Amino acid sequence: MPIFSNPYASLDLVRVPQDSHVSLQAFNAADEYLLEELHARALPPHSSVLLLNDSFGALALSLAAAGYRVTSCGDSYLAAQGLGINQQRNSLQHLSIDFVSQPEQLQGPFAAVLLHIPKTLALLEQQLIRIQPHIDSNSLVVAGAMIKHLSRAAGELIEKHIGPVQASLAKKKARLLWATPSGIRTAQSPYPSRYSIPEYGLQLVNHAGIFSREGLDIGTRAFLPHLPNNLGHKQVADLGCGNGVLALVCAQQNPAAEFILLDEAYSAVRSAQENWHAAFAQRPAQFIVGDGLAAFTANSLDVVLCNPPFHQQQVVGDFLALRMFQQAARCLRPGGELWLVGNRHLGYHVKLKRWFSHVEQIAALPKFVVLRASKAEHA
User: Fold this and answer.
1) Beta 3-5 vs 10-12: how paired, if at all?
2) Whole-model pTM?
3) Does domain 3-179 have CATH number 3.20.20.210?
4) How large is the angle between the packed helices 58-65 and 29-40, nearest 10 degrees?
5) Average pLDDT in the 316-341 region?
6) Residues 341 and 323 sit within 8 Å (Cβ to Cβ)
7) What is the model's pLDDT at position 226?
8) Where is the Methyltransferase small domain (predicted)?
9) Rounded distance between C-alpha atoms, residue 18 and residue 144, angstroms
10) Quick one: which of 20, 65, 67, 340 is 20 to 30 A from 91 by CA?
11) Which fold has domain 193-374?
12) How far apart are CA 75 and CA 208, in angstroms?
């Protein structure tokens, strides 16, 4: 892997989870540009710096190594895990870096804020609103992105919630947006948002950043009528739960089943937990932010429900989905089942046969298929 060299440090970084078949870097030109420009501004030593959406620790480790007091905030458990892995990989365990998940409170003030513009504009807006009380007119605020991922709307949101924006020249296909804090205080955040699914009697809370925040996505809508029933007291995991709608509808049909809702996004699990308690009051369930089923013991689940992702941040591919299928196969008991919905063109019915003895198509729509993959009864 290439070394990430910048004015503050030279780092050997890996992506998390690691994929030996894809030659993707754990940093990009926007990381380099942000650090070069911050260095040129001569931020005083030991200043307090807030980083937003630093995926694998490229920014945090560089600045902490230079002596800055670093807080890294994001919505991804895998990002937090990546920071820890890369800190150890570069023998920087002695550095103190605070990781704050998206729902947690920030502890400012900050002399500088470096922001990777996220894929979801709602998450960007919520983060901009959150930092308002923690900056002043002397704070440096700069956002960075690869040009192909930088929309005009992102700049407009920064200007709306922070102050006037000046765009940099392009460099290695990256661009920066410098904002001048002007004391703006947003009256009220528009997040979380809510929408209803009348046919299931549900109203869903959706915190900023989660998938399909404004309404039910078409894949999930295709999946809901075909969720398993007659599960009795079986243990069911909603893997990559988002706002928890799969578990909620399945739980309506299976009042004795036990549910675990998991996602790597903090805001997703927070949304799922609030939606579960609104729907079922005192009915117990588990809510876990983590790396899928990686921490689960083998042969510990009866059913896994999944609407798998097809991207990690801006990187599109089926690596994460296939990893989730493999995790499910390991954690399901003999005879256990993985139920999932996927785009027809992705060919999951073929790929699932690597880990499951039987794969059955439950339903087919023009764009989606619902599949049930069963684990062999005997090893």
Assistant:
1) antiparallel
2) 0.92
3) no
4) 30
5) 90
6) no
7) 97
8) 202-372
9) 24
10) 20
11) Rossmann fold (3.40.50)
12) 10
**Domain coordinates in residue numbering, the chain:** 3-179, 193-374
pLDDT at 4 over 50: yes
**pLDDT above 50 (res 212):** yes
Task: Quote the pLDDT of residue 210.
Answer: 87
Residue 28: which pLDDT band, with cuts at 50, 70 and 90? very high
SS (H, E, C) the chain: CCEEECCCCEEECCCCCCCCCCCCCCCCHHHHHHHHHHHHCCCCCCCEEEEECCCCCHHHHHHHHCCCEEEEEECEHHHHHHHHHHHHHCCCCCCCEEEEECCCCCCCCCCEEEEECCCCHHHHHHHHHHHHHHCCCCCEEEEEEEHHHCCHHHHHHHHHHCCCEEECCCECCEEEEEECCCCCCCCCCCCCEEEEEHHHCEEEEECCCCCCCCCCCHHHHHHHHHCCCCCCCCEEEEECCCCCHHHHHHHHHCCCCEEEEEECEHHHHHHHHHHHHHHHCCCCCEEEECCCCCCCCCCCEEEEEECCCCEECCEECCHHHHHHHHHHHHHEEEEEEEEEEEEHHHCHHHHHHHCCCEEEEEEECCCEEEEEEECCCCC
Q: In whole angstroms, what is the distance from residue 169 CA to residue 98 CA?
A: 32
Q: Name the residue type at position 183.
A: G
Q: Could you check whether 3-179 and 193-374 share the same CATH topology?
A: yes
Read off the tokens for 363. Answer: 């339903």
Mean pLDDT of the chain: 93
